[in-house]
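Forwarding these from the shared drive since the link keeps breaking.
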Amino acid sequence: MNDKDLTKKSTISKKKGTTTKKVKVVGTEQFTNNQTGEVENFQVIKIEERDFNFDKIWLFHILESMDLIGGQKMKVMTTLLQLKNRDNLIITTQKDLSKLTNVSRPIISQTIKLLCESNFLKKKQPGVYFINPEMLFNGGKTNRMNILFEYNRIGEPEEKETKISDEPETHILTKPKEK
């Protein structure tokens, strides 16, 4: 058996979900001990961390089934999931969502509010909602981490820009008016 064919997996549980570390023996290399000059052989391994324990679903079929068994809020939820783009954004107004689903605007508003409270959605700006990539994402780990970073920044106070100018600051002092 070749050293490169040997693999060992170890699983690590995290707060949300599970990842796996794949340990692969790459081969052996010779290293020289600087103190003694002795040449020694060492195994070289490569450790990769991967997402693990995810179910593969066909979203369209799940949404059809959810729509059959659910009520008005489920209809809104399934439509939101169908409108999601590759960056986990939903670009629609509540008015348009009401027309698409034939659901009243108060139910649309209540559903979106509940989804935001459960951290499934965040409102990025009027007419733009962001689905939490920790709950639903289509794509690779790197892209998911970038989208997650952007999702977590929503709602944080923005840093104020500092203007840098060559002009010296001027302050005008005025004496208060006497009554």
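-- next protein --
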Amino acid sequence: MNISGNVSEAEVRPADVPRAAAAAGEDPAPTRRPGWVALLLTTLVVAFVALLAFGFTRDPKEIPSPLVGRPATPFTLERLDGGELRLADLRGKIVVLNFWASWCYPACWNEAPRLEGAWRRHREHDVVVVGVVYQDTAANARDFVRQHGKTFPNGLPQGRVPIEYGVYGVPETFFIDRDGRIAHKHTGEISEGVLEAEIQKLLAASSVAGGPAKERQ
């Protein structure tokens, strides 16, 4: 306070400003609001991280495919043993469509004899196993087929077949019913038990008798 009894600007404390303004009949300076913007951003970041973490914990095998129940996309394969194979020519049969590659180790190597076994057991019941080579060379694919004794048709796809089936890695297996609709999709290495169970479902649905109904793991 100076000699005249007035308070100088330098002597006014921040806490006195609202009281001084109110005494003078003026509106006090607005007080600062809580950091709601920072709080909102923090909440959004935490929610995003939680959602991302949840996505990484999901097993892709448990995520249903939007293709199930829809007509299977027509395609043509260049068979490794010569000639062509068209899905349209298999109408009325049950088709086990397996996408694989020779570099897909160990999953594709492990399931190769299971697929061959299913083909030999059920070929007389109008069940056809078809192998689609995925991002591999014809030479490597032929070596793989010869090494694993595959006798069911295998070939290189023409066009964008893997993309149209939503394949993002191998192995993936589709089960197509006699009406040409996708009944089931299996992502990853398929066990003999799952393979047999899905074939038996389609055989039962089409009222086809016969075929070994064994459940193996």
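Residues 2-12, 49-59, 208-217 have pLDDT under 50 and may be disordered. The radius of gyration is 34 Å.

- D.
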